[in-house]
Specification:
Radius of gyration: 41 Å
Shape: globular
Length: 244
Amino acid sequence: MKRTIFAQLRTLMYVALMPMLSMSLTACEPQDPGTEDNGGTEDVGGGGGNTDDPQGGGSGGGNTDDPQGGGSGGGNTDDPQGGGNENSREVITIGRYGSDTYCSAFNLDFSEVKGLKAYVATGYGQGCITLTRVKTAKSGEGLWVKGAPGDYEVPVIERSDDNTLNMFVGVQGRTTVYGQSQDGLHANYYWTADTVNTYFSLISSSVVLDNSAYLQIPTAWDAPKLISEFRFDDGEFVDTENDK
């Protein structure tokens, strides 16, 4: 009888303690991180940039369909502003009289352009200009170009020689140029080429068109009203007035 009562009491105590033991064991079990944590596969942070978004911060360059992307490709080869790409060209047109002044917004390479020569003015004396041929020209530099009538494709380059001695002044925008500089120290001349006149004429008041140039010499050199004699660095001498 006593054993039966004792067994029943032990059973009741075991039943009462089971929930407490279960809760204690559950609290000690390690958690499973699963895939809901920020470190799971649902977080794409840190990968290469989205190739559909040119602003993506990944190491793979910007969208190749967008020229503004961060890719390594140069500018558009059809656009001469594309960073001096070797395929870029600027077209220079020589009119029927075979010469003109010129100024480009880009660095140009004349070295392999057949039939077209570019010059800078490097000296003046006794009514004669000394013209020196150049292979390259910087952006904004004034030039005198010579060739048979027609169109010439001149390569655009990234860097050019520095033609420091040049009496031609380049003009890229529509500008009014007068006979003397504002300080009165230089006389200004513009190029005239037609069936009657082919020389540099002293400016009284003239509008110089885009992509052009004018000649500027010191007034202390007794500048004449017109200059028609040209001495080239290769020894050639031309008098455009008396050689007609």
